[in-house]
Design a protein that fits this description.
alpha/beta, Rossmann fold, 2 domains, 7 strands, about 15% strand
């Protein structure tokens, strides 16, 4: 794994799932980390302290709500104040709601656009001045296969993820000669604890096995009948933050078992 020792990474939505795996990957690479997300306070403190003990880095936590620009700005400022720098920004926070367009609640649309798209604009806007001053920065936006292709019942999510890839390209162009890169990662099916619970629920409802439902679920979209692990997403994020990726910018990296190759 590339060494990022002494640098600081902020990962939004990092108290569980993909975001937590990304945070662990950066900690393993030597980064100090700022966690963010919702959850039980005691559980989050155990995560934070565990990262420090396991990887011998410094870890902090921000409870900033990604739908609130003022809290986002305060989180960026707190990261820079507490660590002295913000080198890697990973925009991972996201929410979902499934419904047809005509039945999609307006408030759900607004919430998904706010968290899945607008929050990344606000974090990037606040982080760029410091990155430009230091002449080094990595911005990694966790999009989705749905940032490149669509599925029914997911109007807000698909719109937000497509928009996030567009934002990625604009930031990459504007920072191309500032020592900063901006890229997107587009996962397909990722086997998080939440998805595993959904698989097990499907198996109970249909009287089948979890393995059978896992195959049925992933095969709906992917030619490769294999889930991506959260750790693989984390490893790709660390690579994009490394010096080996210093001229990679404005790209959307699919990690989706061939979903978008079809």
């Amino acid at each position: 794994m590339p060494s990022l020792k002494g640098k600081t990474a902020l990962i939004t939505g990092s108290t569980s799932g993909i975001g937590l795996a990304i945070a662990r990957s950066f900690a393993a690479a030597g980064c100090n980390v700022m966690l963010n997300g919702f959850g039980n306070a005691d559980d989050i403190e155990k995560l934070r302290a565990g990262l420090e003990k396991e990887f011998r880095i410094s870890a902090r936590y921000s409870h900033a709500d990604m739908s609130k620009p003022a809290e986002i700005a305060a989180m960026i400022a707190a990261t820079e104040n507490q660590f002295g720098t913000l080198d890697v920004l990973v925009n991972n926070a996201g929410i979902q709601h499934v419904a047809s367009v005509e039945d999609f609640p307006a408030e759900k649309w607004d919430a998904i656009i706010a968290v899945n798209l607008s929050s990344s604009f606000h974090t990037i806007r606040a982080a760029l001045p410091g990155m430009k001053k230091r002449k080094w920065g990595r911005i990694i936006n966790i999009a989705s296969a749905h940032g490149l292709v669509a599925s029914g019942q997911k109007a807000a999510y698909v719109a937000a993820k497509h928009g996030l890839i567009g934002l990625t390209k604009v930031v990459a162009i504007e920072t191309a000669n500032a020592g900063i890169t901006c890229n997107a990662i587009c996962p397909g099916w990722v086997l998080t604890p939440l998805v595993q619970a959904q698989i097990e629920a499907r198996a109970r409802e249909r009287g089948t096995t979890a393995e059978a439902e896992k195959l049925a679920l992933v095969a709906e979209k992917q030619p490769m009948h294999q889930f991506t692990s959260p750790e693989n997403v984390g490893a790709l994020a660390v690579f994009l933050a490394s010096e080996a990726a210093s001229t990679i910018t404005g790209s959307a990296y699919s990690i989706d078992g061939g979903w978008t190759a079809q």
